[in-house]
Each structure stands twice: as C-alpha cells, then as structure tokens.
Design goal:
CATH superfamily of the largest domain: Alanine racemase
Largest sheet: 5 strands, parallel
Strand content: 5-15%
Oligomer: single chain
CATH class of the largest domain: Alpha Beta
CATH topology of the largest domain: TIM Barrel
Shape: globular
Length: 185
C-alpha cells in the first residue's frame, strides 16, 4: 500500500493578527470608514471566519465580489453589511434590495431596475456609483456624473450613498494611481 504524503504547503491563519492589522489601519486613518475586502474567500483566509472575527470591529462594510459571497457572510451571522464590488446580474438584484446590501451601479439600466425593485418592496436602496477613472472595465466616466446625478434624482427609491473607483495598480504604479485619484476628485 502506498504511503500518503503529508501536505507540502498549508496556511495557518491567525485571526488575532488580522484583527491587529485592521486596528493598525484604523490608527493610521482616524475618522474614516473601513471596508475590509474579503472576496475570494478572504483571499484564502476563510471568508466566514475572517468576517466573524472583524464583525464587531466597527467597520462599515465587507467588500465582496458577488452576491454568493454576500449571502455567505449573512448566513455566517455577521451584522456588517456586504458591499458587492462588481456588477450584479439582473436576477441577483432582488436579493440585494431585500437584504439592503450595498452595490455599485455602473449603468442607468441598473439604477432603473434597482429603483423598480426597491419601489416594489417599499424600500429605499442606498447605492454607490462606480466611476471609471482609467481602468476601463465599467462605471460612469467622470464627465458623465453631472447629468447622471440629475437623472438619479428622479429615481425616488434610490439614495446615493457613495462613489467609488478601482485603483488596479496602486501598489505598482504611483503615476497612474495619482492620475486616477485626480480624475476621481
């Protein structure tokens, strides 16, 4: 009978260290809102375990990639709202509205659909606008925002809570990142 080989690699997750790292960020950026990005299973650290660990740390949102991850966080008993960083399929938007999860919108079609669902359920849905500052994968262009805000004002069941942009190479290319920040401002 062949011998079973032991694993060659493994990860030991120190949840106390994750909590400590969040507190270091909070000390460095006092008075800000925090959103740990926990997509892809908290980058392999364990989605539910990390979220339960950070749930009582006074953060605004958990950043996730999709509705499935948002659902897992809610099912894990976390009170912190999931924030879906990517687009949602039309079939997923009802679940977002019913749960009050946060989501980016990047088209007026999305906004109108969310508005109709929120109206159907007697809710006001907080939304965030995705602003494309140079990544080129979606979102409203900065020069579209003035007209967009006027059109969004006509959608009574949406509340604009925030704006966001993706800085895809913030740790690699300072010049591109600073250009994106300037466009966002």
């Amino acid at each position: 009978m062949p011998a079973t080989s032991p694993p060659r690699a493994w990860a030991e997750i120190d949840l106390g260290a994750i909590r400590h790292n969040l507190n270091v960020v909070k000390q460095a950026a006092k008075g800000e809102y925090y959103m740990p990005v926990v997509k892809a299973g908290a980058y392999g650290h364990g989605l539910e375990q990390v979220c339960r660990t950070l749930d009582s740390e006074g953060i605004a949102f958990f950043g996730v990639a999709n509705v499935g991850e948002a659902r897992r966080i809610s099912q894990a008993g976390c009170r912190t709202r999931p924030y879906i960083l990517g687009p949602a399929f039309p079939e997923e938007r009802e679940e977002i509205v019913l749960n009050g999860w946060r989501s980016f919108i990047s088209t007026m079609e999305e906004a109108a659909h969310y508005n109709s669902l929120a109206r159907l359920y007697g809710k006001t849905l907080p939304i965030h606008l995705s602003v494309d500052t140079g990544m080129g994968r979606g979102g409203f262009l900065p020069d579209q925002l003035e007209e967009l805000l006027s059109r969004l004002g006509e959608l009574d069941n949406l509340h604009l809570e925030g704006l966001g942009a993706h800085l895809p190479c913030a740790d690699e290319d300072r010049e591109i990142t600073l250009r994106q920040i300037s466009r966002f401002e």
